[in-house]
């Protein structure tokens, strides 16, 4: 999986950014206009199926994509009300604007993001 960590000095948002805690996500949301946070688990089949879609979204849209492992970030997942994985949370201009649960088809995610990037 081609992920960066939130602490990388690279400005590129072409690959999903691995989030290591609440402050990482907060920093990313504050600096990114549109951020799609993917709350996932390594053991989750639908999460694995969604992974190539999320990576393509990161490469081909203006949104920054964050990957958050719910097993290592249980407190963060809980604070966003994540009860099932995958859960996708969309932020625009520093505010949470959407939340969807379950694997979503690429066109639906793209449409969701484009509603906030135009």
Describe this protein with a few key phrases:
118 residues, alpha/beta, Glutaredoxin, six-stranded mixed β-sheet, 4 helices, 6 strands, 37% helix, globular, electron transport, redox-active center, Thioredoxin, Thioredoxin_domain, Thioredoxin-like_sf
Question: Can you tell me the CATH architecture?
Answer: 3-Layer(aba) Sandwich
Helix content: 25-40%
Q: How many strand units?
A: 6
Shape summary: globular
The name of the CATH superfamily reads Glutaredoxin
Strand order of the largest sheet: 1-2-4-3-5-6
- End-to-end separation in angstroms reads 29 Å
- Mean pLDDT, to the nearest integer, reads 90
Question: What does this protein look like?
Answer:
With 118 residues, the protein is an alpha/beta fold. It has a single domain (4-113), classed as 3-Layer(aba) Sandwich (Glutaredoxin), CATH 3.40.30.10. It has four helices and six strands, in the order ββαβαβαββα. The protein has helices at residues 22-31, 45-60, 74-79, 106-117, and strands at residues 4-5, 17-18, 34-40, 64-69, 87-92, 95-101. A six-stranded mixed beta sheet has the order 1-2-4-3-5-6, with helices on both faces. Strand 3, helix 2 and strand 4 form a beta-alpha-beta unit. Mean pLDDT is 90; it is low at 7-12.
């Amino acid at each position: 999986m081609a992920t960066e960590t939130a602490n990388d000095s690279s400005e590129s948002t072409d690959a999903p950014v691995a989030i290591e805690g609440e402050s990482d996500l907060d920093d990313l949301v504050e600096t990114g206009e549109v951020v799609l946070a993917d709350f996932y688990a390594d053991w989750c089949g639908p999460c694995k199926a969604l992974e190539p879609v999320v990576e393509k979204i990161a490469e081909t849209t203006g949104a920054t994509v964050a990957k958050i492992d719910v097993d290592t970030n249980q407190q963060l997942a809980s604070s966003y009300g994540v009860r099932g994985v995958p859960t996708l949370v969309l932020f625009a201009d520093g505010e949470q604007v959407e939340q969807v649960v379950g694997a979503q088809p690429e066109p639906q995610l793209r449409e969701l993001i484009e509603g906030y990037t135009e």
